[in-house]
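Researcher: I've got a protein sequence and the SMILES for nicotinamide-adenine-dinucleotide. Could you write out the 3D structure of the bound complex as structure tokens? I'd like something to compare against our soaking experiments later this week.
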Amino acid sequence: MNVPSPKRAASDGETLVKVALAERSYDIVIGAGALASLGERISALRPGVRTAVVTDRSVAKHWLRQTEAALMAANVPVAQIVVGEGESSKSYDVLQDVTEALIAARIERNDLVVALGGGVIGDLAGFAAAVVRRGVDFVQVPTTLLAQVDSSVGGKTGINSPHGKNLIGAFHQPVLVVADTDVLDTLPPREFRAGYAEVAKYGVLGDLAFFAWLEANHGDVFKGGAARQRAIATSCRAKAAIVARDERETGDRALLNLGHTFGHALEAATGFSDRLLHGEGVAIGMVLAAELSAQLGMIAPEDAARVSAHLVAVGLPTRLQDIAGFSQEGIGNADSLMALMAQDKKVKRGRLTFILLEALGRAVITSDVEPSTVHAFLERKLR
Ligand SMILES: NC(=O)c1ccc[n+]([C@@H]2O[C@H](COP(=O)([O-])OP(=O)(O)OC[C@H]3O[C@@H](n4cnc5c(N)ncnc54)[C@H](O)[C@@H]3O)[C@@H](O)[C@H]2O)c1
Ligand SMILES: [Zn+2]
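Model: Sure. Here is the predicted complex with nicotinamide-adenine-dinucleotide in place.
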């Protein structure tokens, strides 16, 4: 019998998640050791392509050699562009270095940029790909948990402006995402934990069964193996579904900002420093959003307590007082936090938009919370 051969499926043990965006659709491949298949997947997608891997120094130390080997094994030519690590690389200066290096490496319209790293590299390399030669395609190889479950999916790319984070950028979807769950083994534990806040976020905002599964299985997610892969795949599926509904964040995609209005203000209040990693700010922000929802009578106080208990169980900060150097001088007062929230680019015509919970596992977007209510709430939380 003549059975049509299936499109290349995920190999043994890998999970394939599709991001359905018509002609911009792409696959997310998730699995232990998936990096080894990178060259083969790229040459299947784009025969004859040349690549340039953009990465940072720490990631290069651990994973650049394997990445190049995977590409070369499939006869995919590869150039390397290594930048310094950290948020400061999302700058005009480093963008210039990367775009010039891409041109020097003769990356042309049909070639591919490979972003090998965390969210910083994904945002920077993705934006460089969006603008060099008016746009070349790129592949995400996320190496942090945050990048595997969040930043590598959805096509937001960009750099920071002196006026604020992520203010210069473009929507530019990758053509493929390869998330090797083993790559996370070299990630510092604090970074892994911070990324986990985004995993828990998907449960809290839209999937109570997943949240309950995380409550029972978080130990295994941290250890690695099948539970980690399942948590990452479930998160990617959740993000992919929301992005497919609302690619440009005109509606539903804002649900992904659960915990982020408070979280960004706290990151800004601590100068985007080591005192508070992004995911840690999201953890505290998510608990504040749940508590504010409870105060407004939208959910039961026990549901808010359940969110916070889970994040405490994995070792994440959940209270303003958990922030290093906490004091009203150390992170500001309710007025200054309100001012920082108002600067967030998610603010529309002066109204603060909050993502609140109408049930545990069901978030809603709302802009009708009175600023005075939020102010009083923060004053209490700061005590
Ligand atoms: N585009 C989006 O949709 C989106 C979403 C969320 C966050 N972001 C952006 O992501 C950035 C944060 O990303 P992040 O948390 O991944 O930070 P990051 O990219 O700075 O990585 C954190 C640190 O871990 C190191 N590292 C990365 N992978 C490693 C590995 N496997 N082993 C050892 N060390 C490793 C990096 O060198 C860095 O020092 C922020 O700039 C944020 O704005 C973007
Ligand atoms: Zn986030």
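Model: Residues 56, 58-59, 62, 85-87, 90, 117-121, 123, 143-144, 146-147, 150-151, 154, 156, 165-166, 183-184, 186-187, 191, 278 surround nicotinamide-adenine-dinucleotide (ligand 1) (CB under 6 Å). Residues 1-9 have pLDDT under 50 and may be disordered.
Researcher: Great, I'll pass this along to the crystallography team.
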